[in-house]
Amino acid sequence: MRISTNTIYESGGARISDLQVGLNRTQQQIASGRRILNPSDDPIGSARALVITQTDAVNDQLAVNRKNAINTLSIAEDTLSNVTNVLHNVKTLVVSAGNGTLTDQERGYIANELQGSLEQLFGFANATDGTDAYLFSGFSSTTAPYTKTQGGAQYNGDQGGRFLQVDTSRQIPISYIGSAIFGNIRTSNGQFNIRPNPSNVGQTVATAAINVPTTANLTGNNYEVAFDNTGLNFTVTNKTTGVVVVPSTAYTSPQTVTVDGMDITLTNTPGAPGPNDKFSIQPGNQNIFETITDLINTLKTPTGNVQRRLELTADLSQANFNIDKSLSNVLMARTGLGTSLKELENLNSAGESMGVIYKQELSALQDLDYAKAITELNQNQVVLQAAQQSFVKTSSLSLFNYIN
C-alpha cells in the first residue's frame, strides 16, 4: 500500500499532539494535586465527589450553627444563673423581714434592697444574646420581653420560639418564653387568689370570677374588699393604684359587684361579716416582678397594730411561696438549657467525625497518587521524545533526499 507524504505528516502530527496533551494533563494533575481535573476524566467519581462536597459543606454549616447555638444558650444559662442568685437573696430578705424585732424603718431598708433586686431581675429578663436579639421574648426577638408597670412588669413577648438547625434532623430552641420563666406563679387553682384577712372575725366569704363581657378591662392589679367598722358597708380598692373603685356600698347577702373585668361576690355562710373584715384579691397567676413589688409595698407599710402585723406575716408567707415557685420555674429552664448544651456537645463530636470521613472520601476520589503520576509523566516524556524522533526519521524518507 502506498502512503503519501501528506498522510505521514498528518498522522505523525496528530500523534505527537495527543502525546503532548497527555503530558500537559499529567503536569496539571501534579501541579494541582488533583486526579480529576474535568468531569470527563472520571464521570462517576466527579458525580460522587460533588455529592460528598455538598454534604461536607452542609456539615460545616451545621457546625457553625451549633457554635452560634452554644454561644446563645451559654449566655441564657449564665443569665438564669444570675437570676437564681438574685432570687436566693430575695428569699433570704423575706425571711429576715419576718423578724418580729424589726422596726418599720428597718423593714424599709429591706424594701430598698429588694428594689435593687427587682431592677436586676428586670435587666436579666430583658437580656440579649449579644446580637440585640432578646433571649426571653419568644419568637419576637426585637421586642423587649418586659416593660415596667405600677404593679411590677408586663410581658410583651409571644408564646413562640426561635429555633436553629443544628443537625440534618434536629432543631434547637435559641429563645425562650419569658412568661414561663419569670411568670407562671400559680397562687390559686382559680382565676383569682382570694385571701381573707387573718384578723377577720365574720363568716362572709368572697369569690371572684372574670366578667366575660368586660374581659378587656382586666388590669392584673391587686384589689381589697374592706368592710367598715359596722360590717354593714364595704368598699373595693385597687391596691396597686390606691384608687377606690367601688365606694362605700350597703351590703346584702349575696351581693355581686363588677369592677375592672371582675365579678366579686360576697356571701354569708351563714353568718354576716365582722367589723373591719377584709379580703385581698390577686391574679391567680403572677410574675416575679409583681410578687416583689407587692412585697416591697408590704414592707413599706407601717405595722402599728396587731391586725397589721398579722397581715404582714400572711403577706410574707405568700411572697415566700411565690419565690419558691419562681425558683422552680428558673431551675426548670436551666435544666432544659443544660440538656440542649449537652446535646450540642454530642452533635459536635459526631459532626467532627463525619467531617473527617467526608474529607477522607474526597481525598480518595480526587487526590493524586504522586508516585504513579510522576512515573506516568516520565513515561509520557519518553514516548513523546520517541515519537518526535520517529517523525523526523519518517518524514525524511523521500526520493528527493537521494537525488540531492
From TrEMBL:
All copies of domain Flagellin C-terminal, residue ranges: 322-402
NCBIfam families (alphabetical): flagell_flgL (TIGR02550)
Top-level taxonomy: Bacteria, Pseudomonadati, Pseudomonadota, Betaproteobacteria, Burkholderiales
Assigned keywords, A-Z: Bacterial flagellum, Cell projection, Cilium, Flagellum
Main localization, broad class: other
Chain ranges of the Flagellar hook-associated protein 1 D2-like domain: 199-283
Domain Flagellin N-terminal: residue ranges: 3-139
Similarity section: Belongs to the bacterial flagellin family.
Gene name as annotated: flgL
Record carries keyword Electron transport: no
InterPro entries tied to this protein: Flagell_FlgL, Flagellin, Flagellin_C, Flagellin_N, FlgK_D2-like
Pfam families per record: Flagellin_C (PF00700), Flagellin_N (PF00669), flgK_1st_1 (PF21158)
Subcellular location: Bacterial flagellum; Secreted
Protein name: Flagellar hook-associated protein FlgL
